[in-house]
Structure formats: C-alpha cells, structure tokens
C-alpha cells in the first residue's frame, strides 16, 4: 500500500481525502496557497507545504512546485482531487516521471477521454450513442458556424477541454452565434488554456444521468450505478442524487453497460464518471440517451454513490493506484436506499448568484443519522476570490427518496453561515419544490423556475431586526460613555442621541443594507426601538421564521429564512456616499480579475452594451452600460485584479 500521499488540492476535497488516507494508515501532505494556509485542510494533514500566492496558476496549478513538494516531503503518491490538475495528462505523466504514483487513470486514457471531442469519437467506436454535432479539429469561425447551421438551431457550443459548465453557450439562432462563440473561446482559453470548441444539437428536456465506473490495472472494470444531476444552474450541478428517480431497469442496464464498455475500450484504471443526457425528462426503457463526456477523476458528487453503496471511493482509488485489484466484483456491488447532496456555495442568490467573499463569522452545520457534511471551512475562515465558491457539501441518506430529501431539508435549516452570503435559501426552495419532490425535473428546471427559487429583494424583517441590534449596541456605547463622563460631541452617531430623550419619537435613519444606503423609520416606545422599512412588506410576526444576529465588527449579520442580511451604519463621511456619481461609475460587483475590456476611452455606448468582463470563482460577469453615453474613463487594464466596488469605467452623457 502507499505510505505517504500528497493531496494537490484544497478545501473540502483535500480534507475528505486526508480522512480516508488516515483511516488506511497512509500519511498525508497538504499543499496550500498563501490565503489557504489557515483553512482546516492545511491543519489536518501531517505535513503542509506552502506553494505560493492565491492565483491557482501560481499555486494549485503549478505542477513543478507540487511535484517538488512531494519529493521534499518523501511522498510516494499524489492525489489530485478534482478540478485543478486532476484531468491534466501532462501532470500525470510528470508525476510518474518523478517516480511517484498518480492517483488517477493513466495519462494515455486521460488524453483519449479527457477532451470532449476525442471522447465522443471513442464512444462512437465503442457503440455508445453520442449527441449529434460537430467535433472536428477545424476551428475557423465560418466553419463552426456552418456546422451549427448543419446541426440546426438551437445549438450548444462547448469547450473541448471544458468542465464545471465553463466555456459552454446555448445559441438560439445564427445571429447570436459569432459573439457567443468568441465568448466561449475566451472563457475556454482563460480557464483551460485551450480555446477549441465543439458544436452539439441541444437535447430537449434532458435529464443528466451519469455512471460511476472503476477500473484496475488487472483489466477489470465495474460500475457503481448511476447518479442523477439534473438540477443544474447554468450547466453546473446544484443538487445530485442516487439512484436516479424513475430510472427503469432496462435503461439502467443499457447505460451502465455502455459506461463499462467505454472504460474498457481504453483500458481505464481508477475512478471515472461517464456522463449522459436522456432526452424528454423521463427515464423510460425507450427514452433516447446520449453520451456527452467522461470525467477522468473523482466527482464532486461521489458521496451520494458512497452513501447508497456503503463504499469509500477514495479508498478504492488509493488501492487501485497501489496496484491492488478492485475490492469487489460487479455482482457484489449493491445499491440500497437513497442519497441526496446539495452544494452549499458562497454566493448571493438574490443578486444573480454573485460570488460572495469575506471572513466567515460563524459556520455551524448539524450532525445526525444519515447525514454527512463535507465542509472546507469553519468559523473564522476567509473565502478568497481565487477558487470555486463551494464551501460545503451536505449529503443526506435515507431508506427512500422522501426520507433522504427530508433529512437534507432539515440539515439545511440547521446550517448557519454568517459573514458571506450562501445559496442555502435557494437550495431549500429546490428541496421543497413539489416538482422536485415528485422527481419531475430536467436540466432546464432551475432556469425556468428561477424567479420563484432565488430569494428576491430586501428581507425587511431581517433589516428591522439588524437595525434594532445596531441601535441597542449604540445605546450601550452611549451609556458606557456617559458613565465615563466623556461625551463625544462629534460622534457620527450624534443623530441617535435624540433617542435618549424620551419615548414615542419617530426618526428616519440611513443604514447600509448589504452595502446599499437605505432609509429606515425608527419608532420608539417603552419597549425600545421598532424599525420599519418604508415600502417594506414585513411579514406578519406569525409567518416569520427564526431570526438571529451575529455581531461582527461594525456590522450586524442577520440570519433569517436561510439568508444573510448585513446591516451597518451609513457613515456620512463620503466614502460610501457617492450616489451622486453612481449612474456614471461602472464598478466591479465582486473581487475578481478583469478578463476583458471591450471599449476604449472616448467610445460612445448604447444602453446595455458590454463594457468589461470580470472573472471570479470560475464565472464571468459581464458589465453593461446602464444607459447610453460616452466612456470618459477606463480605470483598469485587462488582467488586473480588482476588489468589489473598484471603479472600472466612467460614463458621461454624450
Ligand atoms: P463534477 O463534474 O464533479 O460535478 P464540476 O465539473 O462542476 O464537477 O467541476 C469539478 C469541481 O472541481 C468544481 O466543482 C470545483 O469544486 C473544482 N474545480 C474545478 N475547477 C476549478 C478551479 N479552476 N479552481 C478551483 N476548483 C475547481
Ligand atoms: P462540463 O464539462 O462543463 O461538465 P458537460 O458536457 O458535461 O460539460 O455538460 C454539462 C451540462 O450542460 C449537462 O449536464 C447539460 O445540462 C448541459 N448540456 C451539455 N450538452 C448539452 C446538449 N447537447 N444539450 C442540452 N444540454 C446540454
Ligand atoms: Mg460534465
């Protein structure tokens, strides 16, 4: 068996691999970028090696630094986790050349199956149905446009090297083709260093069904049944489960056999996932199904397979990498019960799922029967803008689907994250949605239902609660000052001193609600301050869920209905109060990297025209002109890192 494994990854997956290695008596080496060294995974390993600054290119993607760290620490193997170098055949080869074991498939199989284009060719050769389309080498825009016309609109443009939903664009008609092709190529180049794309027919109402396969170095390949990952937002998985609801025996037999056949055709070793789309929403024996890609690595959602099979997939990976036979034969692998996973991400679902960065002031997750929480963070951890926004996976298992979903729903309700926004309310809305409960979803479900799933607008109840907390805190401070006999005449809170005068007063106050200046009405009576949001539709008390507040420095983080609202005083010193120029300033909505600036100073723009693209946490955010005008100033360069609120461009009237 292996003696010491280096984990070339971070966060929850690094921690999860360390857990299994430790149970098997294998020592662990973590590598961490500077902002990550305080995270739980870096502490959990037997040894941690700092490998560089935050940007992945200088740390988790720096193959030579990682191999050097393995050599220096005497590791005999490298586990790549997922993302980063996990599907990089050159890295796998370099690991082997350094005399180390790569915990994953052989570079040759990765090369054959890692790219979507060649994988489709191999699938066709193995008799596996693929989505009709163009997956040739020729990449000239006119040739690709011709291929799209041949396939027939709508078409899907996909990065050949793609993953995580990046570099993928749905094109409705020919007019949109050229700009969407350019944007897909740019994203693919930035994310994978490879701008090549393929064109596919759009499968109607697809279910995303994938089969977990495992091969060993003795020529055996087995499958561990299927997972259903149809709940997706922008082609990225949100909730996954096993088994797939409504899966017919015949379809399961056909798809698992095809997956094993494909893996066998390249002598596949280690863990892999063969992804398919099933057309039409159902999983009947006759439903058309197509191979889309193979992921030559462990999958984010592997825990649902572990929950229903009772197996540890990382243990299997380590055993196979050490040259052992697969622990079980096909007939010995059984699936029992049901499991569901939800990806908890640091993102602001009410603001278009913008990534949310910052220090986590509180992180609490429940424990209980049938529950598994794989978290990469803890109270005090800092979410940086460099990596994926997923902070934890919540996995629930039960005897049947309803029981598993109920458990996961309760687990979400008991999860408390303060300091960054999360998608918890969105996940909860999905789990309780009647269509999801009936198992009637396809990959377009979230897109169609988004308005009812993502929380909207301001949470008036949370604002009122937060402002009351701020006022009480201010009162305590004033009281303490009075006791010290040192009145602060020029206090920025002077307006509040009025509240000391007596009951039944009303006053209008400015606060920052999630950074946005907002006026609130405060009414006092003997029981204290009562806050109302003008125009706010505060729910009647009976309908209000539990609310709690976490004081964090100058701000109060209010948790209510699985959402966080941040409340702070609006200072009058100008720093925040530049609404006067707000219409003309184009600011970065998040911390990130300026991926593209479309215009130069002096350019005339129409309302809605693209100005720049900010890239953060794997996503591109396009900033458009809020109105027509002239670009008076471009304040950033392409490639530059910017912080949230930084000025990108200035817009003036023509
Ligand atoms: P899966 O197909 O296993 O569900 P995805 O295709 O969504 O997973 O991507 C794999 C995972 O790898 C991501 O969810 C993320 O956690 C991680 N990942 C991928 N790319 C990166 C990256 N550039 N930086 C950090 N993490 C990444
Ligand atoms: P990635 O490498 O980013 O995981 P995939 O090829 O696996 O890319 O596709 C991810 C998701 O995008 C699929 O699960 C599906 O929801 C959607 N998708 C991909 N190809 C098609 C297609 N041809 N028609 C409809 N949806 C598609
Ligand atoms: Mg995929």
Q: How would you sum up this structure, described in words?
A:
This protein has 654 residues and is of the alpha+beta class. It folds into five domains: 4-103, 3-Layer(aba) Sandwich (Rossmann fold); 132-201, 2-Layer Sandwich (Dna Ligase, domain 1), CATH 3.30.1490; 207-444, D-amino Acid Aminotransferase, Chain A, domain 1 (2-Layer Sandwich), CATH 3.30.470.20; 460-487 and 501-569, PH-domain like (Roll), CATH 2.30.29; 574-652, OB fold (Dihydrolipoamide Acetyltransferase, E2P) (Beta Barrel), CATH 2.40.50. Helices cover 28% and strands 30% of the residues. The strands form nine sheets. It has an eight-stranded antiparallel beta sheet with strand order 14-13-10-11-12-15-22-20, sandwiched between helices. Helix 4 (89-97) runs antiparallel to helix 5. Bound molecules: adenosine-5'-diphosphate (2 copies) and magnesium ion. The site of magnesium ion has 2 residues, from loops. One adenosine-5'-diphosphate is lined by residues 56, 82-84, 163-164, 236-237, 295, 299-301, 387-388, 390, 618.
